[in-house]
């Protein structure tokens, strides 16, 4: 059964069926018990009436056994012999003896004689009806040719002749049986109807509740078929789980669309950036093939180096986008900065890069990637500086800060976030920079983010641009607080 609606309807129907069955059985048992107790009480009343007559000294022939049609009576002595029965009683069971004809040898009580006292002056024996709870049994009786089920109550009585008798009186169970049968038949008739209603209502309610899910499924199928990530699934107005599912699905589609758009732009920009050096290199090689004396070897080598650097940048970005995790080795940022600066032999700025005094400040991560960040920041600063570039490493509230400053034109405030996007170069940078592809700062920020840090751009105190790389210190490295950043 693959349908959620069908499973929900079947489950609800089974639960309701079990509940109604248990409740119906309980009702039937309680009803039967109450009606049986009522019949027992009625039989006890009839038995005590006859016992009272016997206690008053009435003879068996004078007994009034109530309504013989509804309360059959049987009186037995201590030996179990029948001494009296109600009129028209033809058969009986459930009272201990099935006899319905009084035994001829059974003693009969003598008529009352209030003036006859014993010569010795003793009081006559006192008659008494037992006050103990009666014995209750179920049986049958045939009265005037009709057999029926009865509830019998047995009450003991002691007559004035000191004879102990047992009075068995019955109350019919026909009303109890009829009521129980009526209730049972009503339940058996109504149960299927109730289950059908429950199944139908559950089906309709589940169908209505799952209708938005089907809409979401159809829209996702359409998006898959059309590959149009700009479409969105319908969001219901409710605040339930389905609405949250729709919103989450749309958020996922938004992120996916942005990722695909970014990937497309990345491929387009990469193709555009690769086209220029490849075209230049091809032109130089074609000219050199036709006129060897005109071959610009230095230009070809420069274009090749540019292609190699661009390919390395694209490979690193692809690895970062794939979620490559940096290492957890200890990296001394102070030593790394000094090493990077010492290896720069082709600085455009004659004085070179000034390095502030740095101590041993360690962070956890990949030494190669962090060296790439420092190198990219220095390259960017040297391309835009007028006369000086500075770099410093310091501790600040448990973090390690690397600051790179230059005295160039700086970065406009409105562009300080945009410059970290891939293949983005400002207009003035395009005029002065013939080698960058606009990937250096994007790589630097991605690497910083992968290391749990940040990279921000701002204004230097003496003009120009100021880039601040903040990384978590290793084992609480650096608690010193310096100037505000």
Number of H/I helices: 8
Indicate the overall shape: rod-shaped
Structural class: alpha+beta
Mean pLDDT over the residues = 82
Q: How many strand units? A: 14
Helix percent band:
40-55%
Task: Enumerate the spans where pLDDT stays under 50 for 5 or more consecutive residues.
Answer: 113-119, 429-433, 476-485
Radius of gyration using CA atoms only: 54 Å
Beta-strand percentage range: 15-25%
For the termini, the CA-CA separation is 65 Å
**How many domain modules?**
3
What series of H and E elements makes up the topology?
Answer: HEEEEEEEHHHEHEEHEEHHEE
How would a textbook summarize the main sheet? 7 strands, antiparallel
Short recap of the structure:
46% of the residues lie in helices and 18% in strands. The chain is α+β, with helices and mostly antiparallel strands and 485 residues long.
Secondary structure layout:
Elements: H1 4-55, E1 73-76, E2 82-85, E3 89-93, E4 128-129, E5 135-143, E6 146-158, E7 164-172, H2 174-226, H3 241-290, H4 297-321, E8 329-332, H5 333-342, E9 353-355, E10 362-365, H6 367-384, E11 389-396, E12 399-406, H7 427-432, H8 440-450, E13 454-459, E14 465-472
Parallel strand pairs: 9-11
Antiparallel strand pairs: 1-2, 1-7, 3-5, 4-6, 5-6, 6-7, 8-10, 11-12, 12-14, 13-14
Helix pairs in contact: 1-2, 3-4, 4-8, 5-6, 6-8
Describe the protein's architecture and organization.
With 485 residues, this protein is α+β, with helices and mostly antiparallel strands. It has three domains: 4-108 and 124-180; 241-309, no CATH class; 326-472, Histidine kinase-like ATPase, C-terminal domain (Heat Shock Protein 90). It contains eight helices and 14 strands. The protein has helices at 4-55, 174-226, 241-290, 297-321, 333-342, 367-384, 427-432, 440-450; strands at residues 73-76, 82-85, 89-93, 128-129, 135-143, 146-158, 164-172, 329-332, 353-355, 362-365, 389-396, 399-406, 454-459, 465-472. Strands 1, 2, 3, 4, 5, 6 and 7 form a seven-stranded antiparallel β-sheet that branches. A five-stranded mixed β-sheet has the order 9-11-12-14-13. The chain is rod-shaped, with a radius of gyration of 54 Å. The model is unreliable at 113-119, 429-433 and 476-485 (pLDDT under 50).
């Amino acid at each position: 059964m693959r349908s959620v609606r069908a499973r929900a309807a079947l489950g609800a129907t089974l639960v309701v069926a079990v509940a109604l069955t248990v409740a119906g059985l309980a009702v039937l048992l309680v009803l039967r018990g109450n009606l049986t107790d009522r019949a027992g009480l009625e039989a006890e009343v009839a038995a005590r009436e006859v016992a009272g007559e016997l206690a008053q000294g009435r003879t068996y022939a004078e007994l009034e056994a109530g309504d013989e049609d509804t309360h059959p009576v049987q009186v037995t002595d201590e030996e179990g012999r029948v001494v009296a029965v109600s009129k028209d009683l033809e058969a009986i069971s459930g009272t201990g003896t099935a006899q319905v004809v009084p035994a001829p040898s059974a003693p009969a009580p003598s008529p009352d004689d209030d003036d006859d006292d014993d010569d010795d002056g003793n009081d006559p024996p006192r008659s008494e009806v037992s006050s103990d709870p009666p014995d209750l049994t179920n049986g049958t009786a045939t009265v005037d040719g009709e057999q029926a089920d009865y509830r019998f109550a047995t009450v003991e009585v002691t007559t004035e002749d000191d004879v102990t008798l047992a009075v068995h009186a019955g109350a019919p169970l026909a009303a109890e049986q009829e009521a129980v049968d009526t209730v049972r038949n009503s339940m058996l008739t109504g149960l299927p109807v109730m289950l059908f209603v429950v199944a139908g209502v559950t089906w309709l309610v589940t169908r209505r509740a799952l209708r938005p899910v089907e809409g979401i499924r159809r829209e996702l199928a359409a998006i898959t078929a059309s590959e149009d990530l700009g479409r969105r699934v319908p969001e219901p107005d409710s605040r339930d789980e389905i609405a949250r599912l729709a919103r989450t699905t749309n958020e996922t589609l938004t992120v996916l669309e942005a990722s695909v758009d970014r990937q497309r732009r990345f491929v387009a920009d990469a193709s555009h950036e690769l086209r220029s050096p490849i075209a230049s290199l091809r032109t130089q090689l074609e000219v050199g093939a036709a006129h060897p004396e005109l071959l610009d070897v230095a230009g070809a080598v420069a274009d090749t180096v540019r292609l190699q650097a661009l390919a390395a940048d694209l490979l690193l970005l692809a690895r970062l986008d794939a979620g490559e995790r940096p290492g957890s080795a200890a990296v001394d940022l102070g030593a790394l900065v000094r090493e990077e600066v010492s290896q720069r032999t082709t600085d455009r700025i004659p004085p070179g890069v000034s390095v502030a005094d740095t101590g041993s400040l360690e962070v956890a991560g990949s030494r190669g990637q962090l060296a790439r960040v420092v190198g990219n920041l220095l390259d960017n600063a040297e391309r835009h500086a007028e006369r000086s570039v500075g770099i410093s490493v310091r501790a600040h509230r448990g973090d390690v800060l690397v600051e790179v400053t230059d005295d160039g034109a700086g970065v406009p405030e409105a562009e300080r976030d945009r410059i970290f996007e891939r293949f983005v170069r400002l207009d003035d940078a395009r005029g002065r920079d013939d080698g960058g592809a606009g990937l250096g700062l994007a790589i630097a920020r991605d690497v910083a983010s992968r290391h749990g840090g940040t990279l921000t751009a701002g204004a230097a105190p003496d003009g120009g641009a100021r880039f601040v790389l903040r990384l978590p210190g290793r084992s609480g490295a650096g608690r010193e607080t310096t100037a505000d950043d």
